[in-house]
Amino acid sequence: MKNCEYQQIDPRALSVSPSSAQNHTEKKAQRPRRKWEVFPGKNRFFCDGRIILARQSGVLPLTLGLIVVTCGLFFAFDCPFLVEHLTVFIPVIGGVLFVFVVISLLRTSFTDPGILPRATPDEAADIEKQIDTSGSSTYRPPPRTKEILINQQVVKLKYCFTCKMFRPPRTSHCSLCDNCVERFDHHCPWVGNCVGKRNYRFFYSFIISLSFLTSFIFGCVITHITLRSQAGKSLLQAIQESPLVICFFSIWSILGLSGFHTYLVASNLTTNEDIKGSWSSKRGAEDSGNPYSYNSIMTNCCVTLCGPMPPSLIDRRGLLPPDEATPAASASDIELPLFAAKNDTHMPAPCVPSPQSVFPLSSSSRLPDSAPQVELPTCSTLDLCSES
């Protein structure tokens, strides 16, 4: 049998050295994580959480591009003629309206619409115990509601199974962003965000200023065509020199949208409530009036557009707690120290010791001669050494 060499391993060598564990911990805790990095909704964040957008925000560049191209054509084709024949204030007014439209659009798109944070595991477990009366953990009960009184009118609060909470009044869950939004109006793909309590005033200023801008451009285009026609040119030639006559087809939709939202602001309604007919008499309710209306157009407008800006509740730039920001390192993440291997030329190949050397048989415990002899494998019969 070949000689086998065994080396005893010091158990203390298996323990992780303090320096390696400290380096691993420092590597994990190099940069504190912020809450937007683990946000559960379907949103995208930019500039370290300062900008929030919906995941489907591909139409926003198109909206911005249409505004920029339309105003660029206006300043290139119509403004030089109108400045020469009318006044120099035309491009100034157009530039001011353009800047106001772009700022309102970007503020609508980049502002938190009023997302409500989801319930913590403890809060969710407590609410689930209250509404789950079946006693089964796999059974999902139907949506439950709570009833509250607002201005002597019953308002139902629905339970959101995604956010694990009862939605506050006028709150709805957006299926595209996967968030509960306070005073949810609608999800607007043109601005790439939901429109809710915190950004509705910017959305309304955007569509109103866009209506003024398109009306101003359309009026200037008509004036340009009229002056060209009076100068002796035909109407077709005048239209060819002012390509923005296409504003005639887009101005009506923008004016209609502005008028609709002006009606909503004056009534203190949302688009979601108006489409569903929540406070319509057609639903057959006796007291079907809007409980949120102040019965005054001026008061409704001031409350909707001029009230104080509520703070964001999701705190997307806040730092995560240490136990959540730096999870415990698993055994696979910890680097074990490498053992110095001996030179293969000086260390014999490992082998398996023979059973006789491990369990030697005494003379009194030998098998009788008549018993069948069983050949036990030894190092010479096993090919483990050769495989090593």
TrEMBL record:
Annotated keywords: Acyltransferase, Membrane, Transferase, Transmembrane, Transmembrane helix
Keyword Membrane in record: yes
Membrane-spanning segments: 59-77, 89-106, 202-227, 242-266
InterPro entries, A to Z: Palmitoyltrfase_DHHC, PFA4/ZDH16/20/ERF2-like
Enzyme nomenclature, EC number: 2.3.1.225
GO BP terms, alphabetized: protein targeting to membrane
Gene Ontology MF term list: protein-cysteine S-palmitoyltransferase activity
Location in or out of the cell: Membrane
Source organism superkingdom: Eukaryota
Protein topology in the membrane: Multi-pass membrane protein
Annotated ranges, domain Palmitoyltransferase DHHC: 156-276
Catalysed transformations (reactions): L-cysteinyl-[protein] + hexadecanoyl-CoA = S-hexadecanoyl-L-cysteinyl-[protein] + CoA
A matching Pfam family: DHHC
GO-annotated cellular components: endoplasmic reticulum; Golgi apparatus; membrane
Region span, Disordered: 9-33
Family assignment from sequence similarity: Belongs to the DHHC palmitoyltransferase family.
Notes concerning its domains: The DHHC domain is required for palmitoyltransferase activity.
Listed name of the protein: Palmitoyltransferase
Provenance organism: Lates calcarifer (Barramundi)
